[in-house]
Structures are given as C-alpha cells and as structure tokens.
Amino acid sequence: MPTPLALLTLLLASVLALAAVPAARGAEQGAPTDTAAVLDGLDAFVDQALGDWQVPGAAVAVVKDGVTVYAKGFGLRDTDKKLPVTPDTVFAIGSCTKAFTAAALALLTDQGTMSLDTPVRDILPGFRMYDDYATAHVTTRDMLLHRTGLPRYDALLALRPEVSREEAVALLRHLPPNKELRAGFEYSNLMYVAAGRLAEVVSGQSWETLVAGRLLAPLGMAATSFSPQTAQASPDFARPYVLRRGRFAEIPFADITPFGPAGSMFASATDMARWLAFHLQDGRVGDEALITKTAMTEMHTPQIITPRGQPNPEIPFGGYGLGWGVSAYRGHLLVLHDGEIDGFKALASFMPDDGIGVVVLTNRMGAPLPEIVAFQIYDRLLGLSPFPWAERAKADRAQAAKVRTAKAAATLAVPEHPAPPTHGLSAYVGVYRHPAFGEVRIELRDAGLAALCGGETLPLVHVTYDMFRTAQADAADAPTKNGDAEPAGDSTSGLTATFHMDHSGAITRLDIPLEPNAADIVFTKVAADPGPSEPAATPGDAPQGATRP
Hints:
Blueprint: H1 4-13, H2 25-28, H3 35-38, H4 42-53, E1 57-64, E2 67-78, E3 83-84, E4 90-92, H5 98-110, H6 132-137, H7 140-144, H8 155-159, H9 165-170, H10 189-203, H11 207-219, H12 228-232, E5 241-244, E6 247-250, H13 260-263, E7 266-268, H14 269-280, E8 284-285, E9 288-289, H15 293-299, E10 304-305, E11 318-320, E12 325-329, E13 332-341, E14 344-351, E15 356-362, H16 369-382, H17 389-412, E16 430-434, E17 438-445, E18 448-453, E19 456-464, E20 467-470, E21 496-501, E22 507-512, E23 521-527
Antiparallel strand pairs: 1-2, 1-15, 2-3, 4-7, 5-6, 8-9, 10-11, 11-12, 12-13, 13-14, 14-15, 16-17, 16-23, 17-18, 18-19, 19-20, 20-21, 21-22, 22-23
Helix pairs in contact: 4-16, 5-10, 5-11
Organism: Desulfolutivibrio sulfodismutans
Region (Disordered): 526-549
Signal peptide: 1-19
C-alpha cells in the first residue's frame, strides 16, 4: 500500500482457468450460437485498448441468460515476470465490494432479523452521528443509498489505518455532514463500513464470514477473498501498477481490511461472472433462492438521484440503489458499480431486462478502459452501432487534464508579495489532534518545519504568513498521449497547512483541507513539545475492547 498520505493525495485528486478461454467457449456451455459471431473481433478491440490507454492487463467476462459466454484475459498480470492475465486472475475490485455488503444485509432482512428502515441506533450500540437528528433517524437504507449527508472523509483511511471497524464507526460522531439527512446524495465509504459493522452485530459473525458463507460459497466464488494477503497467496493474481514517465511501476497493495465492507474484496472475472448471473437470475442459484426476488429488485431500483457530470444523451440519468448504481444505456436499463483502489480499476454491470452482464477488471487505476470495453460489448450484444466511447474519453481526458493543471498551478502559486511567518518556527512545533483524524506532529527538521502524520514525514514549505505547504515531490509522472497521468506513489505535494493563533498570540490550531467537499479539518494543539509519539486519543464513549475483525 502507498504511504497513507500518498493514498490521501490520490483520494483528494479524484471526485467505482489457468489459461485464456477463447471467445468460442460460450458455445460449449450452451450459450446461443450467434453470440460468438457477435463478439468476433472483441479480442482485437481489447488488445488495442490496452495499448491505447496504457493498461498492463485486463480480464473480461460476459454473461448472457445466466451463462458465461465469454471469458478471457489480456495483457500481463505481472510485468516483470511477463505473466499473462487469465479469466481466473485475481484483481482488487474496490467499491464493487459494496454490492456484496448490500446483499448480505438483504439476506438478514429476508430472514426477518432486521429491517432496512429501523433506526441504526436501535441495532448498533453506541452509534452516533454528528448531530442529534441524524443520530435518531439514520437507517441502514440511508447508509446504503449514500443519503446520510456525510461526505467521503476518505482521509480517515489514510491517517488512521490502525483503527478497528468498530472504532471507525465510533468516530462518525466527530465528522460534520455536508447536507441534511436525506437532502441529497453524498458518496460515503464510511457509511458502508458502518453498514458492514451493523451486519456483524445482527448476524453475530464478522462481515467477511457472513459474505463468504452466505454468498461466495453457494455461488462457487472460490477465488474471491477479502485481503491482499489472501489474494497474493493465489497462484494467479494481478499486481497493482501506476504509470510513471510513460512506464508501468508496481506499487504496494492497499490493505483496508478494517474498512472492508466499503471496498476490500478481490475476485477473478470468472467469479464475478457468477456474481452477475446471480443478479440476473433474481437471487437464485439453480432452483434455490438465496435472496428473495423482492429484495433483489429493491437493490436494483434507483432510490436516489446521483449528481450528473457532463450531459450525455447515451446515459441520460444517474441513480443509486442498494450497493449498485442504476442508469440507462441507450434506452436499456443498466445496473453497475465501478471500483478503484491503488493500482486497480474494475467495472461490474448488467442489464436486467436484457439478461446480459459484463465485468472488466484491470490492474491500473485511472484509465477508462473498463467502461470503453463494457460499452463496446453492450453495443454488440444489443445490435447497436458501436458508439465511439474511446474518442469521447480521450477528448474528456484532455480537457480534464487542462483543468487539473490549472488547479494545480493555482494551488501551488506563490503570493506576489509573501509575508513572513508571524512567529519563529519553534512556536509552531507541537502535537495537534482531532478526535477522529488523530494526531499531526510538527517538528523542526533541517532548519525548517516538517509534519509527521499517518506514518509519513512531510517537509513544509512556507507560503505566506502562517500558511505552509507540503514540499513538491519530484514529478515522476509524465502525461500520457491521452492525458492520463497519475500522481506518483510517493507524491504528497501541495497539501496546505494553515496555523492559527489565539487571542494571546499563541499558535493553538492547525487547519488542513483533508476533505475537498467539506470544511478544513481543525487540529487543536495539545502539547508544545512533541516528545515520544503517542497514539491519538480514542473517543471517551467509544465501545471498549474493540478489536479488528
């Protein structure tokens, strides 16, 4: 996993067969005989896309009428050893995990042990949001629909990787919302962590055990797991990559086990095809219904509208169900979720009314290849003229790169007439704490200041008055021909740190913009002398004896 602050920078810069199986495999499995003809030439299309978008490897699977009609690997799962991707190569699937968490809760609802519309505090001991109204009224449905008003606050994953799942839920009370409860869509990984924790309390099992036993085992998803350690024990797993100076650079696996219900799972295209078939068959495995059709329909029904980006007539609206995004593609109902986590990008999708589904897994984040490949396949299966998604993506990416460059320049700009710090540097030295985000330590290093947080030491460069900025890292990543550059794995440049003084003139506060869609996070000075490092205080009313699942 990249150092925690490196992960944070990536988060702030953003806004989802031991051998290859030939395309004709579907005919052997009883699929319609014309499917192979419809997908003829897809191999060449994907190979071309890998080169165009500079992605090391990809696995693609297509499901039609409950049958896997296509499953194949492309490119490399390990660039150093030149190991090829196969349909059984295991990739991180990131936020595609959320659908498994929602399905696990649907199982518990079906068996009558809970209701999605019961206030969470009636089920989960010690649950508290920032304000009393939300605390009293937030339901599991609200959490699964991202309508609690809580923004991402993904910095918590970076700065507090040591917290348990139970402790992470206890920290919610210190995080102010962006919106009132149910006032709009606010994507929140932390709410899925809380939903997974609620499932643990209701079932009496860990989230991992619940999902593995009640979903993965019946579906035959033997290669699917919950941690990078388990994934790397597989004989066929993909390594994560970023693009640096136009070349693939391997990065460490991200381990977000405590935050698992939001995005920690690993799976192969073969397994994910089984997962899509399960959804296309209304929650049945053979003649057995694991989840009722009513619950499955509810998962696939949009219950809140999501913000739209650039207008797109091919995808006219965006909504969110329970663990799935719900939209329409060229007039056909489309259920989907993407997932991005360090070095990986995935897309799982299906069209319930048409009985088809597509999964695309890749081992490089940031590139739009999963969407381009999936839509190419849907166009073919639906008999539509292929839409030039690659060309549109290139144009959009080039424009986004310009905007990103302009924002970066503005962020890193030096004031025309900078003022000196209001105090000597020693006055800024100390320990600053926030009840949720933990501790930031400011020390004197090499005649300057440095911030120690999240296990990383960041030199601070003075900007003006009491504003500092983390030093700009060496530019390791050159834009690609498609404007698809990624931050370096060790890049933490441009993070602003602003100190404040009290009425007596003493430095007592440090503000850091850790959440782009919320107010700066305020760290209060608790000690002038850093001394030995101590763990951040746990909220006094947090559950005792919490352990990591």
